[in-house]
Amino acid sequence: MVHESSGESIKLLPNKGATANAPVLMTMTERPIPPRSGFNAERLISIGDLSDAEIGYLLDLAEYYAGFLRKATPAPQRLAGKTQINLFFEDSTRTNLSFELAGKKLGADVINVPIAASSVHKGESLIDTAQTLAAMSADVMIIRAKEDGLHDTLNETLDCIIVNGGAGASEHPTQALLDAATIRSEFGDVAGLTIAICGDSKHSRVAGSDAVLLTRLGAKVRFVGPAHLLPSSDQFPEVDRFDTLRDGLDGCDVAMGLRMQFERMKDGGKDAARGYFDTFGLTHETIKLAKPGARIMHPGPMNRGVEIDGALADDRERSLILRQVFYGVAIRMAALDALLTRGE
Ligand code: CP
After folding, report:
1. Is 252 helix (H, G, I), strand (E, B) or coil?
2. How much distance in Å is there from the Cα of 301 to the middle of ligand 1?
3. Are 175 and 299 in contact (CB under 8 A)?
4. Ligand 1 center to residue 134 CA distance, Å?
5. Mode of pairing for the β-strands spanning 254-257 and 240-242
6. pLDDT digits (tens, 9 = 90+) for 85-120
């Protein structure tokens, strides 16, 4: 079942007075209760796998776990005895390591598969590799792949819960959830905000998942960038498109930069970066086009001087980039807990 409409969750109080890298101090000390209809998602491959109530529950549960992370106190060992395998066929720093941390903080046995030293390099197929690991009694497998459809194929054959750690140019659902958690921690709610996703949204799995999730949560989402780096107009009909920063940032609460995904461009992207920073770079000067005090986000990895100026990325009054990393652990703790225990 694919879920589409907008979500409900507990609203946080606006984060007045907090600096961008000092996460909101109001903590959800009570463990949130699962949706009345239950937490029924049996996989997390796409944002469409989650109902509105499940999205709200995950955001609240992430805020609950964020409280343990801020205080550096041990979290309940909800996943003791469970086996989590991280299978990353494509490079990752944030997603891979935050899933590892999240599983360990909840007491799971966590294995990171060393792909570079694995039998993939003896010609074993990705599907055979995943099936072999699932046969080691994995309860959950976090998979990143260059291909768009691999997760659905594996979901039909593997006897464990599949979580998408990033798929081709299509979906990165836990990145979208952590982005929503970060925005909520800053503004109190996602609903009513205008969020500009700037840059290479055409090749970005983050842009796709963010557009769907943030729209469901009540934000107005825009894609901003040169026409050749925007998704085709039949994709994401709910998202407005702008081909200048002047129009695209006007009235925005958040500007999210995206890396140029050179590896997914047909010509290796040699021409895409030429002159790009001068026209579309996020800087202290160009962010003045957005609302006063607008916040900067970026899923990482960043290319400083290509899509974002380093001084803006490091500006602790403006930039939520490291807070996104912080919420990456909290949201992955929430997702693993909910998928493996159903909140019971
Ligand atoms: N945002 C993100 O997916 O980063 P990594 O590629 O480092 O995991």
Report:
1. coil
2. 6
3. yes
4. 24
5. unpaired
6. 999 999 999 999 999 999 999 999 999 998 888 898
Question: Using only C-alpha atoms, what is the Rg of the chain?
Answer: 19
For residue 144, the ligand 1 atom closest to its alpha carbon is 8
Structure letter (DSSP) for residue 308:
B
**pLDDT tens for each residue of 149-204:** 999 999 999 999 999 999 999 999 999 999 999 999 999 999 999 999 999 999 99
Could you tell me the two tokens for 264? 């997914």
| Residue of the CA atom closest to atom 5 of ligand 1 | 92
Q: Could you please report the per-residue DSSP string of 43-96? A: -BSSGGGS-HHHHHHHHHHHHHHHHHHHHT-PPP-TTTT-EEEEEESS--SHHH
Check: CB of residue 282 under 8 Å from CB of residue 307. Answer: yes
C-alpha–C-alpha distance, residues 265 and 83, integer Å: 36
Cis peptide before 76 (omega within 30 of 0): no
CB-based pocket (< 6 A), ligand 1:
92-96, 166, 175, 299-301
**Residue of the nearest CA to atom 3 in ligand 1?**
95
Give the Å distance between the CA of 100 and the centre of ligand 1.
13
Sheet strands side by side (includes 194-198): 240-242, 220-224, 194-198, 254-257, 295-297
Nearest residue (CA) to ligand 1, atom 4: 94
